[in-house]
Amino acid sequence: MKRLVFIAFLFSSALLHAQNTSKDGKEFENSVSIMMEKPDKLTIGGYAQIDYNQKISSDEMNNGNLDVHRLVMLFGYKFNDRSSFITEIEFEHVTEVYVEQAFLNYKINDYLNFRSGLLLIPMGIINEYHEPNTFNGVERPNIDSRIAPTTWREIGAGFSGKVQAASLKYQAYLVNGFNGYDGSAKFTGSGGLRSGRQKGAESYMSFPNLASKIEYYGIRGLNLGVSGYFGKSQSTLYQGISKKDAHAVAKADSSVIGLSMMGLDARFTKSGLKLRGQYYFGMVSNSDQYNEFTGSDMGSTLQGYYVEIGYNVFRNFEKIKTELIPFLRYENYNTQNTVEQNTIQFKANNRTEFTFGIGWKVSDGAVFKIDMQLFSNQSTSAFSKQFNAGIGVGF
Question: Which bin fits 275, alpha (ψ -120 to 50), beta or left (φ > 0)?
């Protein structure tokens, strides 16, 4: 309850500071949204992130890790004023290649688009707005790894649009769900949902899932979002079994979880001040049968949130065209927030993190970053430490 109050306080503070300002929905558009409004037939964009991560310990020596974390090329083609195709090709850690999204969009009218293909799940902030020049810190918040597993995308179809008069944006898609079981358990108490992403790679579907989001941008500098995800995980055990085989159907049912997840998020900018916050709560049904069948320890609820503040200290220096943004982020998430009676609850899965650092944005699309992260959990009172440095670009 205290966490919900904390998030509500952030939202209300943003509203209070933003009164009497003009409406503007452009401040929080991502690169795909901007690309789809361009008149060009062919548009090319992308983003990249190169990191240095160094664990710090008083007891042991650790090598630093240097990585071309991701390099993503974005291509868009407009067939005409109504039809367009968007795709992003991602290279991770130099050796891994993925399709991050690939969808065909048809503009029915000014309020309604139909799109189908490999779609980003509209949950929270980072899953859609994940270019490294759009967020503080070298690494993305960890609740967007364990609870809403960025980059989370699946194949499906649905509608999106904007109601300008009401200052609302919306999305609603039917997609395939997580791969929960393909001979082994994909969900765990420590890893949450992350290993269940199918990513459009020879995906399969046992049950359709619904993903949706509504955003309000009616006050200048403020964006509020409410997102939801509802459905079941998928299981290969359904393949080829008879509908009359009650034992086989019951076995397959035991390899599936139900998932209902809600997300709340807020972003606010005014002058040099930059605030953002996010909250997730996920309810998992059938986790007891899933854990018994697979030998896993999936939680029956997952919960996490973060709040962040930053300020552009160059705001009042007109001759300085860059931004220097120190920031602080507090994050708490628990992938075993509650468990069923026969599942062991590990305190180590209730995690707290502090990230503080600075970003030097030499342009809107290019940034140098350094930060320090402090990690702890309920099983220990000590903090582990990690220093990060990196560059990010988005264009």
Answer: beta
